[in-house]
Specification:
Length: 326
């Protein structure tokens, strides 16, 4: 799958903005407050759809007062807190307590097949898939008036012109599992958060070894062959051609972790503030681990340009979107 269009409303640095026609290799100008806000919003929405904890990302944004550990489960994924009111006000648009993220997604054959299976019990779904298989999802986040909790919800689930969004007992039985699969297809890369233990487990796992082996060759024929091994005190360490990868500097370590995120997370769409030529290779060929990458660099071709607020406006005008060369 890949994301064709994104709309974000309600963030201080992205009060109202739409990007249409996202390419598979989308490079934003940045990193800057606008591109970071876009990554924050997309990460929040898709982690919620996947039923994964959103607290770590909100804590990094200064919004959530209590972070979760990497293996913790969010006790109530629809309600997040406690929040830091000052951090929340710095994150959301002025005088706003809500955020919405809308994505239009082109489905891959596996996700499309899930919907076709569900359509056997819901003819309206079969008709929608035949007309226009593009999927539109909208996730909303609303802070309580005391700004202590953030309530997350699915606000829209449309296929073409047909809406399949209902709450409670009226919600289609197939929808929850489908949204979990959809949300898991998007991953945000952060080099300071990558743990090496999953790489070490992948090296000895029957189902994961093929992905691990492809990661080993991620630097190509001219680069070092990657490997993870148990180092001093049994802690995992990265190797390049059998020697510590740190010999290739911080850039080499970050590239190896970027490749690990692409190969081992089973995601189709990678969000990364780190832009690297390696990303081009991760999108090429039939065995490519990614379908789309959204990254940022100073000469990026997609520019989020802030405009001056309109007179009397409480939230400011929408940001303009321009396409241009480096």
């Amino acid at each position: 799958m890949f994301i064709r269009s994104l709309t974000v409303r309600g963030l201080r640095d992205l009060p109202a903005h739409t990007i249409d026609g996202l390419p598979r290799r989308a490079v934003l100008g940045g990193p800057n407050p606008q591109s970071v806000a876009l990554f924050d919003a997309v990460e929040l929405a898709f982690r919620f759809l996947a039923e994964r904890p959103v607290e770590p990302g909100l804590h990094r944004a200064g919004v959530c007062a209590a972070p979760l550990g990497p293996d913790d489960e969010s006790p109530t994924p629809e309600e997040v807190g406690p929040l830091d009111p000052e951090g929340l006000r710095a994150w959301l648009a002025p005088d706003s307590l809500s955020l919405t993220v809308e994505a239009i997604v082109e489905l891959d054959p596996l996700l499309h097949a899930r919907l076709r299976t569900a359509a056997t019990a819901e003819p309206r779904l079969a008709v929608a898939l035949a007309r226009d298989p593009a999927l539109r999802v909208v996730v909303g986040a609303l802070a309580t008036t005391d700004q202590s909790l953030l309530a997350l919800s699915l606000q829209a689930f449309d296929i073409g012109d047909e809406s399949f969004h209902q709450a409670g007992a009226e919600r289609p039985r197939w929808q929850r599992a489908f949204l979990r699969a959809l949300g898991a297809r998007v991953h945000r890369f952060r080099s300071d958060e990558v743990r090496l233990e999953p790489l070490l487990r992948a090296a000895s796992g029957r189902e994961s070894f093929a992905d691990y082996a492809r990661w080993c060759e991620a630097f190509g024929p001219d680069g070092p062959r990657l490997r993870v091994a148990a180092g001093p005190a049994g802690l995992p360490m990265l190797l390049g051609d059998g020697l510590p990868l740190r010999r290739f500097g911080e850039a080499g370590l970050r590239r190896a972790l970027l490749a690990a995120a692409a190969h081992l997370h089973q995601a189709d769409v990678l969000l990364s503030e780190l832009d690297d030529p390696l990303l081009d290779r991760l999108l090429e060929g039939e065995a490519a681990p990614l379908e789309q990458c959204i990254s940022a660099r100073p000469d990026g071709a997609l520019h989020l340009q802030a405009e001056a607020p309109a007179p009397g406006s409480r939230q400011g005008r929408a940001l303009s979107f321009t396409r241009g060369g480096p």
